[in-house]
Each structure stands twice: as C-alpha cells, then as structure tokens.
C-alpha cells in the first residue's frame, strides 16, 4: 500500500495523543483504529497493526514505572493470565471476521465508548483503597478473562474497562493504571503474533504509530496528576462521533 509522507506525520502525531490517553485512562485506540482504516488498511489489518503500537507504548510506560512502588507483579500476573487466554480467543475471532461486519462492530463500540467518555466513570468513581483490603479474586479474574476476549478482538476502549474493574475491586487510580499497563502489554503479545501469523500487520505503519505512542506514553507515565482531563475528554468525544459516523456510512 502506498502511503504519503504527510499521512505518516499525521499517524505519528495521533500516536502521541493516543499513547498519552491510553496511559492516563484509555480510549487511544478509538483514534488510531479509524485513522489506520481511513489511510487505507483493511479493518482486520488496522486492528493488528494497532497492536504493535500498543505493545511499544506499554513497554515505554512500564519503564517509566519501574522505580515506582505501586506495581505489584503478583497481582499483575494473576490478572494477566486469564486475560491472555481471553485475548487468544478474541484475536482468533478478529482475524476471521468479515470486513464490513468488523467496521460495523467498531462503529458500535465507538458509540458505546462515547457514552463512557461522556459519563467519565474513571473520574466519577475514583476511590482510595481501604487499608488492609484485598480485591476479590475470582470476580476479578473472570472480569479480566472477559476483558481479554474484548481486548484481543478489538482493543479500543479496553483501558476504560480495566480501570472500572480495578476500581470496583478497591484499587486507586494510580495502582489501577499501572496494572492496566502491565495486563494490556502482556495480553497483546500473543494477539500481535496471531495477527502477524495471518499477515494482518503493516509493520511500517505500526512502527510509525508506535514511535508516536511511545512519546505520549512516556509523558503520561511521568504525570503525577491528570491535567486537562475534561478538555481532553471533550476533544476525544468529538473525534469519536466523527469517526463513528464515517465508519457507519462507509
């Protein structure tokens, strides 16, 4: 596929915004997936290509978190294992789905996530974890298995879902964010392999997007507080509406 230089610049720029959003809350793929499709990739290939950026983005964010004491590898791995199983199921389904059907599913998902960004549950339901409390294990594991299926299938908005599960489990936003970064990184590794095995990864576009995502992720991971959250949410809302409408009418 022929790509113009200005498309690569736009892709990298959107990648910066996407990486920033993904690490602070979620929803970055709601920008990058439609953009990859509009550039000219088939929907399934756009889905696979987006995973390259997600993996690089989360590796960079994790590097920024490495000296932090908020990361519990035991809890992260416990949550990642069912998510891996789910992601394999979801990705295996994604590589076989009809192109038109996937576009319609993506449009519906984007509109549903529009509701999520409007309600802004990540901000609304922040609660500090109670001293001595532990998150309920089996409901949390089931939640991450379902999240893995969804994440393996489409990825877009999975960060919101993870944060909601972690907050229901009693985690604060900082710990939930770090857990989210680790789990998404781990379950996307087999997902990328599945998409690549089926020839549904454009490595050039994936690398360009990843470079932008990495920058945004490193900036976001270093922020102690969420700045400009409401403004960012409004911008993302407008973009989601525009992209969802275009996907429906294509």
Structure write-up:
The protein has one domain (5-249). Helix 4 (73-94) runs parallel beside helix 7. Helix content is 78%, strand content 0%. It is mainly alpha-helical.
Which terms summarize this structure?
globular; 11 helices; single chain; mainly alpha; 250 residues; 78% helix
Largest sheet: none
Order of helices and strands: HHHHHHHHHHH
Count of DSSP strands? 0
Mean pLDDT: 81
The number of helices is 11
Question: Could you tell me how far the N terminus lies from the C terminus, measured between alpha carbons in angstroms?
Answer: 20 Å
Which regions have little confidence, pLDDT < 50, spanning 5+ residues?
A: 224-229
Overall shape: globular
What percentage of amino acids are in beta strands?
under 5%
Radius of gyration: 17 Å
The residue fraction in helices comes out at over 70%
Structural class: mainly alpha
Structurally, how many domains make up the residues?
A: 1
Reconstruct the topology from this structure.
Layout: H1 5-24, H2 29-39, H3 43-65, H4 73-94, H5 99-119, H6 121-124, H7 137-153, H8 158-168, H9 173-197, H10 203-221, H11 229-249
């Amino acid at each position: 596929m022929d790509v113009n230089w200005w498309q690569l610049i736009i892709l990298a720029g959107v990648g910066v915004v996407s990486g920033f959003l993904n690490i602070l809350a979620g929803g970055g793929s709601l920008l990058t997936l439609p953009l990859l499709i509009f550039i000219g990739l088939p929907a399934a290939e756009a889905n696979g290509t987006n995973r390259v950026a997600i993996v690089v983005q989360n590796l960079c964010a994790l590097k920024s978190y490495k000296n932090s004491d908020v990361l519990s590898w035991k809890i992260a791995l416990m949550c990642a294992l069912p998510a891996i199983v789910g992601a394999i199921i979801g990705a295996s389904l994604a590589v076989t789905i009809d192109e038109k059907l996937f576009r319609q599913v993506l449009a519906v998902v984007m509109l549903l996530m529009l509701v999520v960004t409007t309600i802004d549950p990540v901000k609304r339901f922040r609660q500090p974890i109670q001293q001595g409390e532990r998150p309920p294990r089996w409901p949390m594991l089931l939640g991450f298995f379902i999240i893995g299926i969804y994440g393996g299938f489409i990825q877009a908005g999975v960060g919101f879902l993870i944060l909601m599960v972690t907050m229901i489990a009693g985690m604060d936003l900082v710990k939930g964010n770090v857990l989210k970064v680790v789990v998404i990184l781990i379950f996307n590794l087999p997902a990328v392999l599945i998409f690549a095995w089926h020839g549904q990864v454009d490595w050039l576009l994936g690398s360009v997007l990843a470079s932008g995502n990495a920058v945004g992720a490193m900036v976001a991971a270093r922020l102690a507080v969420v700045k400009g959250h409401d403004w960012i949410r409004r911008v993302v809302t407008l973009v989601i509406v525009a992209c969802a409408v275009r996907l429906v009418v294509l």
